[in-house]
Specification:
Layout: H1 2-18, H2 28-53, H3 58-65, H4 70-73, H5 77-81, H6 89-103, H7 112-130, H8 132-162, H9 174-233, H10 235-255
Helix pairs in contact: 1-2, 3-7, 6-7, 7-8, 8-9
Length: 267
């Protein structure tokens, strides 16, 4: 579906390029509406599939939870469980039980890998929503998505007013408005996951750096300790060697050394 959407966008650009004489300069609102129209078509297809899959058959749910782009969509627990953000926890639990049974690997022995991935996605979504902190975070994300959507609508209406055009926007329709919130919600979940991975990678790098520094410091201490040990063990040998050399030097100075002869000065 994403490929079809991209193909349609390319076809639109090709059509515009073929006849530049008839092209009309597009305003920012026009570009936004074109992009949203393309995404709306994709969204409608996704929702049509989800409506079809609402019969909750095992294969359909496994296909949905492992479809291309599932890694992105499955970050949203509401999307995984096919529920609205304001669904009561009791209903969330019922939906979780239904779906977990349908996609459980034991119920799908012919498709163990995909059913396992699907089961993990469903389980993760439910655990996020049943946890107080997780639920609070998810609700905050949805509220932020609503705020961003409202701001986007205001900007579009402001631009239309500036251009002297009617201030009607697609999001005036309640379904389109929900769709826009859904899009923003998915983006926010994806952004948070990206930031989490970046923090995790940074923390891992920092832990590795500290471990390397500690290992280097430990090796340095070990070498210094070994050097000190060898120095102490060789002290007696060094002292004996110095005494022997000193005795020889004294003996030589007493018996063998003679003062140099003085030469008479010539005049």
């Amino acid at each position: 579906m994403a490929t079809d959407m991209a193909s349609q966008n390319n076809n639109c650009r090709t059509t515009d390029d073929k006849d530049p004489s008839t092209s009309v300069s597009k305003t920012p609102v026009d570009f936004i509406e074109t992009a949203e129209a393309a995404f709306s078509e994709f969204y409608d297809e996704v929702k049509a599939i989800e409506k079809r899959d609402s019969v909750l058959t095992s294969k359909q749910q496994i296909d949905r939870l492992t479809r291309p782009g599932a890694t992105y969509f499955n970050l949203n627990p509401y999307d995984v469980l096919q529920i609205d953000p304001d669904t009561p926890l009791s209903e969330v639990k019922k939906k979780y039980r239904q779906m977990s049974i349908l996609v459980h690997p034991d119920k799908n022995p012919d498709d163990p890998d995909r059913s396992q991935k699907s089961f993990e996605a469903v389980n993760k979504a439910y655990k996020t929503l049943e946890n107080e902190e997780g639920l609070k975070r998810c609700k905050e994300i949805v509220e932020e998505a609503k705020t961003r959507t409202d701001d986007m609508i205001k900007q579009k209406k402001k631009q239309l007013k500036k251009e002297g055009k009617p201030q009607d926007v697609p999001e005036d329709d309640i379904e389109k408005y929900k769709h826009a919130i859904y899009v923003q919600t998915c983006k926010l979940f994806a952004d948070l996951e990206r930031l989490r991975q970046e923090r995790e990678a940074k923390d891992m790098h920092e832990r590795k750096r500290k471990a390397e520094e500690e290992a280097a410091e430990e090796e340095k201490k070990k070498m210094e300790k070994e050097w000190q040990k060898n120095f102490e063990e060789s002290r007696t040998g060094r002292v004996d060697s110095w005494r022997t050399w000193n005795k020889k030097a004294k003996k030589t100075s007493k018996g063998n050394l003679k003062p140099p002869k003085l030469k008479a000065e010539k005049r």
